[in-house]
Write the structure tokens for this entry.
Amino acid sequence: MSTRTEAESEPAKRRAARATSGGAGPLPTAPCSVVWSKGHAYVLEGFRARWVGVDDRGRPRALSGEQLQRQGWTRTRAN
């Protein structure tokens, strides 16, 4: 296999990984990481390994990594 073929296959692998995980890949693991889901920011609390944000009415909401993966998330705000 040539180097060029290997390099061209890497983006395809990354696209396939995003497609199977809701489009964003694995969730970040660093404490205080920020991701967006359904128009709301969620911050990773390191000591509890949960994602904390607010709902549409401004009430606090905590999600596990699995819950956030299921409802979809991105690294940037998507309107």
The chain has one domain: 3-71.
